[in-house]
Amino acid sequence: MPLSAKMVSLMLLLLVLSASLAASNQVHICVENCAQCKRMLGDYFHGQLCAETCVELGGASIPDCQDVDSIRPFLVKADLV
Q1: DSSP 74
Q2: Cα–Cα separations (whole angstroms), residue 32 to 44, 64, 73, 78
Q3: Domain residue ranges of the chain, discontinuous segments joined by +
Q4: Which of 6, 7, 50, 76 falls between 20 and 30 A from 17, CA-CA?
Q5: d(CA 10, CA 70)
Q6: Signal peptide: which range, if any (predicted)?
């Protein structure tokens, strides 16, 4: 019986680690996309804010540089003066 309890514990640990790695991979992809948008858009894009949002949200919303709706919060509004 103790062997099966150890096996269940090991399986749960592996499941938690797997989920954790998947989440960190999402954050990594999100931050990489922020960097790509910063390279493409330069001063018109808040790269730091984008990366901080990736970390805060755990990579739940990955920016796409060609999708204005996904990067709208990080765009710098040009002065009209």
Answers
A1: G
A2: 17, 11, 17, 25
A3: 5-74
A4: 50
A5: 39
A6: 1-22
